[in-house]
Design a protein that fits this description.
Blueprint (H helix, E strand, L loop, with lengths): L15 H6 L7 E5 L3 H13 L3 E5 L2 H11 L3 E4 L8 H10 L8 E5 L4 H10 L3 E4 L4 H44 L27 H11 L4 H8 L3 H15 L4 H10 L5
Parallel strand pairs: 1-2, 1-3, 3-4, 4-5
Amino acid sequence: MGFLLPAMTIPPSQSPDQGAAESPPSPARLLLVDDEPGLRKATQAYLEEESFCVDTAKDGEEGWEKAQQLLPDLVISDVMMPRLDGYGLLARLREDERLAGTPVVFLTAKGMTADRIAGFVAGVDDYIPKPFDPDELVARVRSVLARQQRLLTEAARFADADVGQLAKQITEIRSLLGQGGGQGSLMGKQGGRGVGEAPQQQFTPREASVLQLVAEGLMNKQIAKQLGTSIRNVEKYVSRLFGKTSTSSRTELVRYALEHRLVD
């Protein structure tokens, strides 16, 4: 591919003492899925020169198997591959609890606008047509990883700032509503029966679990740890619950759940 490696640079803000005192962050783990051996090998070498930890797979099926084992920080995948193509791999990732939030970058010979739109509609995070500039690939990978980190940091910051006030509000709501009988489980109160005219919409078991834990005052990172998933996935479920209950804040969501006897 004719890669030209850039010179290494040292961040000006870090002194030797700072470097010795702080442990360097772990390199991002990437999974590269492509059926072209030469391209796969060259791209892996270049990304590793840029300090990424890179595993490879020769098609979507192998990529799916390795993704489940490795839980990578980001997946770079070709689209046209034997056995399982990029769209099939993306669909499996998005359906898996542990991998649904993993960023995916499509790397493909297809560069037409319709194909790019199809990729974004399917849930891909970025799309780079072949032939590509390796420096651009690195820049896009870093951009996608940085965007994900900002989302996770903001989600954690919001949860930390909100949890104290939310816990107080939950206590007040429970006090106002009383602790009388008739409370049912989330999955058992979806048919419009009982006090408060329970809603008609359906909740998935995972949404039910998240709602119960939100009502108990847990932070997103605590919910993620308890359910064995990522903070990003917890945010996704909370967002879905907002939509299904027509609420716009955790306080409103908890009040709604308690009023309709959807949580214990």
